[in-house]
Design a protein that fits this description.
- This protein is an alpha/beta fold and about 350 residues long.
- The chain is built from twelve helices and 15 strands.
- It has helices at about 5-10, 60-65, 140-150, 170-180, 190-200, 215-220, 235-245, 260, 275-280, 290, 295-310, 325-335, and strands spanning about 15-20, 35-40, 50-60, 90-95, 105-110, 115-120, 125, 160, 185-190, 205-210, 225-230, 245-255, 285, 315-320, 340-345.
- α3 packs across α4, α3 (about 140-150) crosses α11 and α6 (about 215-220) packs across α7 (about 235-245).
């Protein structure tokens, strides 16, 4: 992600943004018909505001949920006819009356548009020297680190199970568990291709494959001595299997609910064996990064930067190019085509 000096000197009069053209029915596949690319004037910042040129943005499964009119997710739904939003890294173009200067890199939540106008208080300054690639600031590593350190409280010698291990959180959670001394790391995936990547490139010892037989049976075979810590991003039968195979005193950190977010209809619930939680002293804990654990973000970035430089950590991601490919990026993410984060470079 680079910036030519000439880019800073010539700001066009208009830019494009991606708007929500229609709301999909529950379970309906995403198509381009739900999105609209619109050319609009570039706004002028007032004192205390930033005009930011978007350089890279990320998409996440929760965005499919936010396309619904109402949602249980503690985020505002996308407005019908309005631009979508999401994490992005951009370059400051103009910043009157602020502590920012043209050329500064910032992180903000107004992706899905080529230029963003926001209050200076809504931007986080990005240190371009901390991570080898500024796009890595858009990883879901802070959530993975939270799940490992405060949700599942991974300890040296643990056997760890990560559901949705090929996703943006799971692809980093397995690596983070190793940093904490995990002895054995098991993940779940939806295809053999992803399972191979988890084992061969991301350090997983074994993979439970959805659709290849009962999850609990596969997990028992992969963890004959049981699991000590679980990082769950899915729910459903994978969470049930985690509880069934959990050792006494196991810690289960809930950091996602993909099974519900991507369900065909309704809001699925997971039947929990509360007797097992009680008799085996299993802890089930939900964690939300931006509600209670913001202090972990700089801590993760320090760990991530050091690990990327010395080769002990990797940043699994796919990168599409051009704002017009943002709807495709979200569609392919929801359909399970990618491993790790899914980014769009503008």
């Amino acid at each position: 992600m680079s910036t030519a000096p000439s880019d800073r000197c010539h700001t066009p009069r208009t830019h494009r943004e991606i708007r929500l053209a229609a709301r999909p029915a529950p379970g309906a596949p995403l198509t381009d018909s739900f999105f609209e690319s619109v050319e609009v004037p570039i706004p002028s910042p007032q004192p205390g505001q930033l005009l930011v040129r978007t350089r890279v943005m990320s998409v996440a499964a929760v965005m499919r949920t936010l396309m619904d009119e109402t949602t249980d997710v503690p985020m505002r739904p996308f407005a019908l006819g309005g631009p979508l939003y999401g994490p992005a890294i951009g370059e400051v173009v103009s910043a009157p009356g602020t502590g920012f200067a043209p050329g500064d890199l910032v992180q903000h939540d107004l992706g899905w548009r080529e230029f963003a106008l926001l209050d200076a208080t809504a931007a986080q300054r990005v240190d371009p020297g901390l991570l080898p690639d500024p796009a890595a600031y858009l990883s879901q590593g802070p959530t993975a680190w939270m799940a490992v350190t405060r949700g599942a409280e991974v300890r040296p010698g643990d056997t760890v199970f990560v559901t949705g291990a090929a996703g943006g959180v799971g692809s980093l959670a397995g690596q983070a568990a190793r940093l904490r001394g995990a002895r054995r790391v098991i993940g779940s995936a939806g295809s053999q291709r992803k399972a191979d990547i988890l084992r061969e490139k991301l350090g997983y010892d074994a993979v439970v494959l959805r659709g290849a037989g009962p999850i609990e049976e596969q997990l028992r075979a992969a963890a004959p001595e049981g699991v000590d810590a679980v990082i769950d991003t899915v729910g459903g039968d994978q969470l049930q299997a985690s509880i069934a195979v959990a050792n006494r005193g196991a810690r289960i950190g809930l950091v996602g609910a993909l099974g519900a977010q991507l369900a065909d209809s309704g809001t699925p619930t997971t039947a929990i064996d509360t007797f097992s939680l009680l008799t085996r002293g299993i802890t089930l804990r939900g964690n939300v990064l931006h509600a209670d654990h913001l202090d972990l973000i700089p801590e993760w970035h320090e760990q991530f930067g050091a690990g990327l430089r010395d080769g002990t950590l990797t940043f699994p991601h796919s990168r599409l190019h051009g704002l017009d490919n943002a709807p495709r990026a979200l569609r392919e993410l929801v359909e399970g085509h990618h491993v790790g984060a899914v980014l769009v470079e503008l």
